[in-house]
Amino acid sequence: MKKYAVFAALLALGAALAGAESEERSIHAIGVNVPIWNHRLPNIAYLGDDKAGFGDFDLETFAVGVDFMYHHLKVRESRFSSFVDVEFGYSNFKPEIDGKSFDSSDFNLDGFNTRFGFGLGGAPLVNDFVTLAVHGTFGLDVAFAMSSASYNTVTVDQFLFNFWTTVGANIDAAFHFTNRVGLYVGVDFYINLIGLGVYGQDSSDSVIDLFYVSPGGFNTDIRVGVSFKF
After folding, report:
1. How far is the C-alpha of 181 from the C-alpha of 76, rounded, in Å?
2. Distance between CA 149 and CA 222 in Å, rounded?
3. CA 211, CA 143: separation in Å to the nearest integer?
4. How many Å apart are CA 204 and CA 106, to the nearest integer?
5. What CA–CA distance (Å, rounded) separates 136 from 117?
6. Could you state, in chain order, the average pLDDT of each consecutive group of 10 residues for the chain (230 residues)?
7. 225 with 69: CB under 8 angstroms?
8. How far is it, in rounded angstroms, from Cα 92 to Cα 106?
9. pTM assigned to the model
10. Where are the beta strands (DSSP E) in 127-153?
């Protein structure tokens, strides 16, 4: 039975590829993106009120956001494809210091992010019903977040500013319900390259220092929106 199922799937794929078009097309998509980030920010100097050095620590953050997205996918007759992506939205960072997180989510940092990305690749499937493309990607990201919460009668204020770069791969798919309008979905998988930022904490102790975004850290984007084909 499995053999027949595999055979039927191959026939369906072959039929789809046989019906593929070679026309050039431009697809504009507007929608939302959910980025899921992991950052490691090592060697932040730890200072007391008297500014005496206490050593350093590693700050790790797990973040989830919701962004408004504009995505432009272009496919040429040769099947070479490219995209540009611009986003702006909300992000929430959960901090861990030397592997230890705060007891309460009140200490999570809330803020905004803005992002720009582009990719180069190819479109293996282009027909009247679907456009499917795969790309290598590069991104530029900026995020700012802050929080204020009380812990054992002590108020802790935090802020975080990051600028970092990413590299990875993505899959773009547009399903055409009419000749012009359809559904866009996309997924990105990428890692951090390098970046700069500042983490600040104001309480009985204070922590303010420049740091770098450590390379690595696996991230994912999930996009969905309305597409317009031209």
Report:
1. 19
2. 31
3. 14
4. 18
5. 11
6. 42 44 86 95 66 67 96 96 98 87 84 97 95 98 93 82 96 96 98 89 69 89 97
7. yes
8. 11
9. 0.82
10. 130-151
